[in-house]
Amino acid sequence: MTHARTLPIRLAPYPGEALDSWWEAIAHRLGTTTGDVLSSMGLLPSGPSRPVTSGILGRLVTLLDEDQAATAAWSAGIPPEEVHAMTLARYDRRVHVIDPRWRRVAARHVWGRARGSRFCPACLANTGGRWLLSWRLGWSFACLDHHLLLVDTCPRCRRPPRHFPATTRHPLVPGRCHSPSQKQAPSARCGQPFEEVAALRLDTEGSASAAQWLIDTAISSQQADFGVYQTRPQPSLALFGDLRALASILLRRAPDRLAGFVPPEIWSLHQQPFPEKRRSFDPVEETRPGRLAPQRAATAALAVSAALHILGHDNAHTAGAALRHLISDADGVIPLKVAHRWRHTSPVFDAVHLATLAPRLSHSDQLRYRTADRLPRRPGSAAAARTAQRARRIPTQLWPAWSARLSPSSGALSRTIRPALSCYLLLIGGTGDFTTATRLLRSPAEDRLGPHMAHRLTKQGHWRAVSLALSALADYLDQEGSPVDYHRRRAVDYRDLLPWGAWRQLCRDASLGRNP
Asked: Rounded to an integer, what distance in angstroms lies between the CA atom of residue 400 and that of residue 402?
């Protein structure tokens, strides 16, 4: 901790301002350097030889400890809470994840941006060059106050704004590009006035503006409760995990089918090729689109608008159908695998994922993943134990009353459907297949009976209704149990209940023949 002193002129933070923008505005007001301001606040050691690197300034903007926030607040005459609110820690566990040990944003976790910022030229012009903290988020791509698409790079030096730390040894002008100049002295800066940069104007009722409004609403409320989340709201961080996964799927599997989700101008900016990479910080075309935060605001607007179109449906099944329509090829092949698990996603996204794949799953997998339910889901860690317990509560042939209601017709189908229904009931949310179910239930049903009976029910249009009924019955048995232990009953060898000689004599007395 270095010695702090009160600032001779105090400047209140602009609402939503970033910490580095605030101390740059104070330095400009005092006519000094940001290094002097930071040393006065106790955030940097004083003296001409103070070591300042991009890592030090980046960590200050990302996260402050309690002592740092307290001394900076005392020096500037504001509450410590306001100082904390100007760091990226304000959005920790809401929009991105911060590693407290290294004080940096996890770049591979839900589009976290470690450094750099987009900007709105109109906002910078109105505020005298004050930068908003939200522009640093990977999910910010539009200004709803001025209805402009945020700008990604400086038009003069072609570098992302605030990618390099502002110099602490020389005075700076707020609202100018602070990237090092390419042709002048090492201490010189680009100096491009950002308020003069042209930005794409957005339709106030357009898809990009609507998508940004939904993003901002989820951040402020810290939850998602629209579309597929209406019946099961999720934390905002889970929403951004879902959006990242969907954006990755769409940008990789259907890059040419997304043009209708944004205006042609945004689509054109997204389609522009990246220039040849000559410097380490030059943007390059992403080999795995969607894995990290898009470098262009146009790409972020496109991906988020398309993903929110999917998640905006009323339930997982309609959302899955919309996603299936976008990514399936001419032969109906869906380029997704049910075994693939996306990181940092919510159960709602898993339901959409499974609903997308449902038509291509086998009937046994449809029962295992409960694709007929309102919220399809994968078998949990306790699925094996739950299956073994449910097997004790299910007869080898399903109860006649249930079978009569689930059988679509009489005759042979109604007689052979009872053992199949018992096996189907055991498969709900389980981990095995039809053969495993017949073994657990000691059923005489052949392995081919399961697919054959499911195909007949599907052909007659009854499979979904039967699956829903069996899911409800499985939930009841798991919660309430059954008065009969069918596993114990199946374990009894009835041949040993009566000795063979007594059984033979009983048959003779009953006149059942000589060879019972």
From this structure: 5
Give the residue carrying structure tokens 């860690």: 381
Measured CA to CA, the distance from residue 180 to residue 178 in angstroms comes to: 6
- Output the CA–CA distances (angstroms, integers) from residue 126 to 102, 118, 156, 196, 233, in the order listed: 35, 16, 22, 12, 37
Round to whole Å and give the CA distance between 118 and 37.
Answer: 25
Are 204 and 147 contacting, i.e. CB atoms less than 8 angstroms apart?
yes
**Has residue 15 got a pLDDT over 90?**
yes
Instruction: Identify the helix (H) or strand (E) that includes residue 234.
Output: strand 234-235
The percent helix, strand, coil of the chain (3-state, each to 5) is: 45, 5, 50
Place of tokens 């770049």: 107
Question: From CA 235, how far away is CA 94, in angstroms rounded?
Answer: 8
Q: What is the pTM of this model?
A: 0.88
- CA–CA dist 370, 379 (Å, integer): 9
Arithmetic mean of pLDDT, 469-474: 96
| Partner residues linked to 189 by β-bridges | 180
Report the C-alpha dihedral over residues 442, 443, 446, 449, rounded to 10 degrees.
Answer: -140
* 290 secondary structure, DSSP code: T
In whole angstroms, what is the distance from residue 41 CA to residue 68 CA? 8
Q: Is 246 helix (H, G, I), strand (E, B) or coil?
A: helix
110 vs 293: CA distance, rounded Å: 8
DSSP-H helix ranges across 102-167: 121-127
pLDDT digits (tens, 9 = 90+) for 257-312: 999 999 999 999 999 987 665 555 555 556 778 888 999 999 999 999 999 999 99
Cα 441 from Cα 430, distance rounded (Å): 14
Report whether pLDDT(113) > 60: yes
**CA separation for the pair 2, 254 (Å, rounded):** 54
* pLDDT tens track for 199-230: 999 999 999 999 999 999 999 999 999 999 99
Which distant-in-sequence residues (6+ apart) come within 8 Å of 497 by Cβ?
none
